[in-house]
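We store amino acids, tokens; thus:
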Amino acid sequence: MPLKDLASQFPTDLDIAYRQYKESRRVADIMSKDVATIKSEATMGDAARVMGKKHIGSLIVVKKGKPVGIVTERDLLTYVLGPGKKLEKVTVESLMSSPLISVNPSDSTKEAAQTMQRKKGRLAVFECEKLVGIVTASDLVRSFPESPKTMLKVDDFMTKRVVTSDGNTTISTVVRMMGEKRIGSVIVTTRGEPKGIFTERDLLTKFLAEGKSLNVPVIEAATSPIIRAPAGTSIHEAAFIMASKHIRRLPITKNGKILGIITARDLVEAYAK
């Protein structure tokens, strides 16, 4: 029997204590306390530069000093770049999601996951009506305990529609496709073989934050080699890989072929059910 299986069947006192610790964690333990904000009258160009420089995927929108909504990198792709609009011509307020989805610092991580699964969005943490943090799918994934729920296999929760793009395609073309299809990544290929992955975060950090041209081959910006996991991987194992590699999308393979992609949001939904 593999050592990993033995460890799961015969956990040590330390293993049990660590599992109980993770199961008892609260929103306050995992939330990001440094909340990035942007004024409602700012443009999506401003938002893109802030998100790119800070390497984050969302900003809390503030109006008259109060948090009123949230704008994300997916909004940027779907409603601005996908349709070919100009970043400087679209205001943050016109695209923000409002009202904010709120949770309390004392809520359990399981309750937060269920709220995220139900409301489909990042969570703003309020204490006595004051914004004190934000919780993303990646924050929740890092907190997953090892339990029967997280031993479920990724095969049943992964996105099976894998969108690819030839490496010579320009980033501007790939970005329009991502916006139209409402997806956050594409597998980049060379001669039909997967060579890298390009994500909305790559777009923000490598191009929009720096004001660089998008008229370059996507292969030049793709992350390579692709971090992947085999079919049959558990939700817990996938969460560990994502957390340790600082990624939010994990291609799932079988016999060398990519069958699907599991995202941090997919993992949260699986855990919340």
User: Anything to note?
Assistant: The domain at 27-136 is CATH 3.10.580.10 (CBS-domain).
